[in-house]
Amino acid sequence: MMRRILPILCGLALIAVSQAQTSLDADGQPAPNIPTITGKLEGSRVAVFRSPKDSCNQNDIPDAMARAFRDSTGTIHFMSASSELFLSLGSTLETLKHSCHAAFHSANDPNPADFNDQAWLDSFYTLDGNKIAALSHTEYHGWAHPGECHTQSIIECEYDSDTFHLSTNGGYHFESFKAPANFLAGVPFKYEIDRGPMGYSVDTNVVNFNGWYYAIATDWTWPPNCSGNKGPHRCVVPTGGAPIRTKNVFDPASWRGWNGKDFSLTFVDPYPGPVAHPKEHIYTPVPYMFAVGGLNVYQSANIVVATLWDYWDNELGPPGLYLTTSTDLVNWTKPTLVVTVKEISKNDPKGSFLYAYFSLIDPNAPDLNFSIIGNNPYVYYVRLNNNNTSDRVLFRQRVKLTLSQ
């Protein structure tokens, strides 16, 4: 069974990164005072999906952050994607029915240059409910292809990118495109056997904010065992996440990344030919986004809220769920704690459990993409039971948000 290994989770198990708040906004001006958001869980959590009990096949497991959008008929398409995309459909988030018609199948492509091996469609955007853009967390699994991995540690043979997919029938089926037309974001280096993990990926949803479409890219620190940005073992790809943006969500080549000064960084496919200046195509991380899982627009204050899940260390404070806000997606407020790992798992039965994949979805969102939130959205998250990759529960629970200056 194919299963996802997110940089958000596993990367933090390998390294803890200290990041300081930048002082300039996206236009190089002094950063404004940004309103903050605090959150508190309310009521009891509800199990939305249990695998394998509710699964259509062995790959139908909640393996990414929960996302939702409405099609042109008003039907909600809800998913917590795996490398096969199965949807839950309905008129409300509370009345969804799971469908065993797969909207997407991964290709198991053995050529890393195709960026088409294992894909988790987990970032969606639509303007009309008919044509839906989908960004995917795409992994090349070298260990699954003869001659492409020699190590005993499979993670050393992982190569990540973000690719573009499209539905023209309201989200019931997504098509792929041949490289390089599918390439959206990735590192400017080819796959190297046993030299991973490496790569970029987009693991947030897409939001429309102040005339731009934004998402956050995350990465693997590379090369292996590097340290900092100086010395003989400095990192070529530094740890962290960074915003990317476009004016056209249906053009994968139009996305631009943050380079530390502005949004002029281009992502380049390394396979058609040599990359002359690879450093020019490596983004500059911004504070706190190494732990990001979702973005939402808190419309009344015109701010973006990022959902952070820091499980492995005390980088943000006690391990748990945090929220941070921004007006430009470059400068972020100090994250505020919503709930700790200990608190969220206090009612679990005896056993070994891992929590992952946190995101906010407001059932009363006015937009087709459920990107806008009010004061009482749901927080969705996944519990992996007893280290069993198939035994998982997708939960939702109300969270009360409070705005403060």
The gist of it:
Helices cover 3% and strands 38% of the residues. The protein is built from two helices and 22 strands. Strands 6, 7, 8, 9, 10, 11, 12, 13 and 14 form a nine-stranded mixed beta sheet that branches.
What does this structure look like?
With 405 residues, the protein is mostly beta strands. The protein has 2 helices and 22 strands. The strands form 4 sheets. Strands 6, 7, 8, 9, 10, 11, 12, 13 and 14 form a 9-stranded mixed beta sheet that branches. Strands 18-17-16-15-20 form a 5-stranded mixed beta sheet. Strands 1-22-21-19 form a 4-stranded antiparallel beta sheet, with no helix packed on it. The longest helix is centred in the first third of the chain and has 8 residues, at 7-14. The termini are far apart. The relative contact order is 0.19.
